[in-house]
Write a structure and sequence with these properties.
single chain, alpha+beta, Alpha-Beta Plaits, two-stranded antiparallel ribbon, 27% helix, 25% strand, globular, binds adenosine-5'-diphosphate, binds magnesium ion
Length: 172
Amino acid sequence: MTRAWLGIGSNLGDRRAHLAAVLRELEARGIPVVGRSSLYETEPLHYLDQGWFLNAVVEVRAEDGPEALLRAAQEVEAARGRQREVHMGPRTADVDILIFGDRVLETPSLTLPHPRLAERLFALVPLLEIAPYATDPRTGLPWSLARDGLAGQPGQGLRVVAGPEEWGEGGA
Ligand code: ADP
Ligand code: MG
C-alpha cells in the first residue's frame, strides 16, 4: 500500500459535480480517498482563453503501482467525458498523480513527482494544506519552498471556495 496525492481540476460544465464524481469514480475502482483539501478556484495558466478552474488535491491509498494508478486516473477522466483536444486547455476533469510515495520515475507516459508540480500554485497550495511536510524525493527539500517561491506571482491567482468538508459528498 502506497500513499499517493492526486491533483484534480475542472473548468468545463458543472465543475463541482465533476470533481465530486472523480472521488466516486476513484472509490469505484478500489482506490480509497482518505483525505481531501479545500476546493480552490484558480486562474488558468498557459492557455488563457478559458474559464477559471476548480482545483483540489486528494490523498489516496494505492494497492498497485503508479502505472495502474495512472490508468485508473485516465479512466476516471474519460468517464467524465474528457476529450484531449487542447494540451493544458479546457477540461471536464483532469486527474494528475502529483506524488506516489517516494517514487521517482521518468517514462514516456509517467513522470513522478509530477513534472509541473513545482510550477503550479494550484497544485502546491492544496497539496501542502493536507501534506504540509511533503518533500521532493529527488532533493529532500520541502515542497513548501517551491510554494513560497511562486506565491504572489502574476497568473497564479487562487482563492478558497469551499472547505474540505463542504464539497465532494453526495455529488455536491
Ligand atoms: P496536464 O495535466 O499537465 O495539463 P494532461 O492532463 O493533458 O496535462 O496530461 C498529459 C500527459 O501527461 C498524460 O497523457 C500522461 O501520460 C502524462 N503524465 C506524465 N506524468 C504524469 C503524472 N504524474 N500524472 C498524470 N499524467 C502524467
Ligand atoms: Mg493531467
